[in-house]
Amino acid sequence: MLLHIWADFVLIQGVGPLGFSMTLFQSLATAAGYDPLKGPGSSCQAPDSSGQCVLPWAGGVKAVSSIVLIANGLSFAYEEGEITKEEYELEESLEKNRISNISTTHSNIGYIATLCLNLTLLLPLKGNPRVNNYVLVLVNSYWVLTGIWWFIFQQPRPGPPVPEGHNYLTIGWKQIWTACKQYKQLPNTFTHLFGFFLLADGLNTTGTLVAICQNDKFSFSFLQNTYLGLAQAITSSMSTLGFWYIQKYWKISTKRMFVVTNVVTMLIPLWGMIGIWTERFGFHKEWEFWAYNVVFGLFQAPYYAFSQTMMAELTPPGFDNMFFGLFGLSNRASSMIGPNVIQTIIDKSHGNNWYGFPFLFALCVAASIIIWFGVDVEKGRRDAGRWARDKRAHQSVETEVQNLGLEEKEK
Hints:
Blueprint: H1 2-32, E1 54-57, E2 60-63, H2 64-78, H3 85-122, H4 131-153, H5 171-180, H6 187-217, H7 222-250, H8 254-274, H9 286-314, H10 320-334, H11 338-348, H12 357-374, H13 377-410
Antiparallel strand pairs: 1-2
Helix pairs in contact: 1-2, 3-4, 3-7, 3-9, 5-10, 6-8, 6-9, 6-10, 6-12, 7-9, 8-9, 8-12
């Protein structure tokens, strides 16, 4: 509410000078004009003027008031603000990307702050055998101190009442099932969800497997892991803002930006797969894990931002909770499949962790192909808008029928 008041206040401050500029224009035109009864060279502001004032205009003369009105009308006609539907969709997409990128950047800035906080203990107490425990206490205290205020000061946001025949334990799952049944009407939305399910599985499991390979080859200390995290967090913040600047400057679509991050998502397990046949590289050397964190920060941080925007563009307006619930479920549920498959593969290969990378590479390639060639964002956006309008119209009819039923019962 307070934000809305401030927005109105700022708007009023902007409109005020606009009205003043019109008065100033009329005043200057009057000063330059002449009295038509006395002829050119006379002054409209003379004590004995007739009250009329004209100026040369378009080969003739015209009253100052008419000139002001014509100029005002022409300026509104020229700056009417009309844009095509395609231009509007592009601007809306860019705005969604701006919000997603700002959110991701702030997340990484918080990551940097926490890692720097770790260094305040890790560096001065480097030789202390209990320094790792102190760091855990510090980070958890930081988490509690910064997080508890949300629970104290959060504003109540009551949603609609739970429908009859439902309860809080089942309503979420029923909404997910209801959303899943719409796949025929929203093919692009659900194709993207399926592709993202596979891609998230491949990316998340690849990160886990790289960490396992790192721990298998090297024993990095808390301090070294903090430096690795800083390398990733700093490059993540820089790349997220950099990708956003590139997209905004050249007005590149969300899908194309997402495709760029997909390519690197595929290359990471491909690099690990090479390690099956050689130990010269393929996550066998220490420098590779530094490179991995830098590359991950440069390309996979924007992946998270663009994946959210892709989903936002394919989500029916007004039904964000329902479809982002599916989006979140596809991200989390996928993490239950990949690790179990990789575990089986590694067990079959007598504990060789690198044999898990071919499966992850194939998974990322399959997911990328589905998203690249199977998702038409423009058509999906139109389908989502049409579905939302039809759904709201249907709900409106149902509400009217229910109200009529209640009125009949009261009679």
